[in-house]
Amino acid sequence: MRRQCIKVPKKKGESTRRILLKLEILDSSVKIGADETFLYLPLTREPTPDELRSFPKEAELNECDFQIQKKKPVPEDLLGFSPAYEVIGDIALLEDPDLDTQKASRIADALLRTHPNVKTVLKPLTPVIGEFRVRDFEVVAGEPRTETIHREYGCRYKVDLARVYFTPRLSTERSRVLSWVKEGDIVVDMFSGVGPYSILIAKKKKPSKVLAIDKNPDAVRYLRENIILNSVKNIEAIEGDAREEAKRFAGAADHVIMNLPHKAFEFLDSAVLLTKPGGIIHYYGITPENDLFESSIELIRAAAEKAGRKIEILDKRVVRSYAPHQYNICMEARII
Question: What InterPro entries does its record include (predicted)?
Answer without folding.
Answer: MeTrfase_TRM5/TYW2 (IPR030382), SAM-dependent_MTases_sf (IPR029063), TRM5-TYW2-like_MTfase (IPR056743), TRM5/TYW2-like_N (IPR056744), Trm5a/b_N (IPR040601)
